[in-house]
Amino acid sequence: MSRNPILRLAACVLAASIHMQSVVRADAERPNIVFIFTDDHSPNAIGAYDRWLKSVDPTPNIDRLASQGMLFERSYCTNSICGPVRAVIETGRHSHKNGFRRNYDGFDWDQPTFPKLLRESGYQTVMYGKYHLGGTPQGYDEWKVLPGQGVYYNPGFITPDGRDRIEGHSTDIITGMAVDWLREGRDPDAPFLLRVQYKAPHRGWMPPLRHLDAFDDVLIPEPPTLFFDHRTQSPASRHQEMEIDRHLCPHHDLVLDLVPDRGDYPGIQRRQDTSNWNTLRRMTPEQLAAWRAHFEPHDEAFHAAKLEGIDLVRWKYQRYLRNYLGCIRGVDENVADLLAALDELGLAENTVVIYSSDQGFFLGDRGWYDKRWMYETSFEMPLIIRWPGVTEPGSRENRLIQNLDYAPTFLEMAGVEIPDDYQGRSLVPLLRGEDDLEWRDALYYHYYEYPGYHMVPPHRGVRTDRFKLMHIHPFGEWEFYDLEADPMELTNQYGNPWYEEQIAALKTRLDELAEQYRDDTDLSERSAEWKEKFRSAAK
Ligand code: CA
After folding, report:
1. Of 110, 338, 355, 410, which one's alpha carbon is 20 to 30 angstroms from that of 226?
2. How far is the CA of 359 from the centre of ligand 1 (A)?
3. Angle at 119 between CA 113 and CA 120, to 5 degrees
4. How far is the CA of 85 from the centre of ligand 1 (A)?
5. Ligand 1 centroid vs 188 CA: distance in angstroms?
6. 382 CA to middle of ligand 1, Å?
């Protein structure tokens, strides 16, 4: 409730009048939900997760949210890629059930998504920002979404009334939409679901102009595995295209030559909607001048230095991380603005605030960028939930949870019945701090997108409290990790007789989970010739 005594009195009078109308009273007891969702924000780049990037203080405001709520330490996705993660959240069902396995699949909006059920129960439902599902959103009273991946500067939006183009940085614009709606758009007598979904910090990592130099004076710490050679992995995980060294190409993948006349290399194919390059063409002359003033001297210095080998990897890592973290600095500031608006409007006490991102992201660990793998770094998702009066401030939860659990959680928060075919579990008992609870012992994972960007092969897997088994099925490859002995998953123990029993047990558990979730994906291996070609391409 507001700190202002007059507003507080007004709220009490309002509450008393609501008390007389039983239908509305039920609504007044149901919490509002503000779901803040970013793209590719690794827990490694959140201070509250206490990982190797904490020393650069990437997220002071998200950390404050964590200190007021609950942080999930073992939170994972079911399929580590942007659109499919969102489809699982929307539907409460695995990719193989909701039909959206790969980014280029189409999403069937006719499914019983959780916002539809909230809306039917009297919630106002609103979504702004990146949705990455394609098609016309269903289940929302109001929406403005970025087409595809969206762009950072002067983005276009799809709205129910057609296309709109707004000047500014996408993170600031999306927050502006949300705050405007909170102030003027909503019906104060009904609870709401407000989804605030940023493009940041997705590639091509373009921070707001005010944060271009935010990390210039800091040497970003390197992860211990920046130069990992992958020889202790199966050939499948050596065959990929996601290495800072070999694949984060200086003049292609958006790390170097970030001013127009430097980077226009003939023959370099640029992605239509994600490239810094196309975004530079959308900038106003003032924006471009500020951008150029920042990057041009850095690019000149880089070319003069003629770096090679590990020095070049280190330079690319610094440039990549500075821009990535600059995007996150923009998000963090905007989270503060949203929280301030909730306080100012007297909404904070009855509003659940969730911070999450669609998957983790390699930030130089294993020598990589991007995501997709079931390795912890890209399998995990940050999740912080502040629910005043329910979550213990500063609490940490370490039971195994997944994005599959979000939809049932939102429904239970709102007192709405969870459909039988939803495959996750509500986190509400965990949020209430219930310890005496039977909880799942294993997570199921399945990634499908191949061939595609970064050439990560399809794989499925199971993770328990201590062990992980990955089945890279088109290639007949397996990986097994003891996460207690080897938390960074550096040594594949598949085939090690020491673990024979545990590997057999996890194989059984994997089949049981596939059965439980009714995953009938074809797991047949590719031809021997095909596999040989694949193996010979492995590093
Ligand atoms: Ca993503």
Report:
1. 355
2. 6
3. 95
4. 8
5. 33
6. 12
pLDDT digits (tens, 9 = 90+) for 117-175: 999 999 999 999 999 999 999 999 999 999 998 999 999 999 999 999 999 999 999 99
Ligand 1 centroid–CA 228 distance in Å is 24
pLDDT of residue 202: 94
The per-residue pLDDT for 29 is: 86
Asked if 392 and 98 count as a contact pair (C-beta separation under 8 A), the reply is no
Question: How many angstroms separate the alpha carbon of residue 239 from the centre of ligand 1?
Answer: 21
Per-residue pLDDT tens over the stretch 38-48: 999 999 999 99
Contact 456, 538 (CB under 8 A): no
CATH number for 473: 3.30.1120.10
The total number of structural domains in the chain stands at: 1
Rounded to the nearest angstrom, the gap between the alpha carbon of residue 298 and the centroid of all alpha carbons in its chain is: 30
CA of 343 to the centre of ligand 1 (A): 30
Residue 342's contacts (CB-CB under 8 Å, 6 or more residues apart) are 34, 182, 348, 351, 353
Q: Show the low-confidence residues of the chain (pLDDT under 50).
A: 1-3, 5, 7-9, 11-25, 265-274
Domain membership of residue 61 (yes or no) is no
528 within domain boundaries? yes
Taking the centre of ligand 1 as the mean of its atom positions, its distance from the CA of residue 505, in whole angstroms, is: 32
Residue 388 inside a domain? The answer is: no
Please, which residues have CB less than 5 A from ligand 1, an ion? 39-40, 82, 358
* Identity of residue 379: F
Q: Is 186 domain-assigned?
A: no
Whole-number pLDDT of residue 271: 43
Angle at 126 between CA 338 and CA 143, to 5 degrees: 110
Which domain covers residue 508, as residue numbers?
446-537
Cα of 453 from ligand 1 centre, angstroms: 13
What is the CA(122)–ligand 1 centre distance, in A? Answer: 31
What is the SS3 assignment for 135?
coil
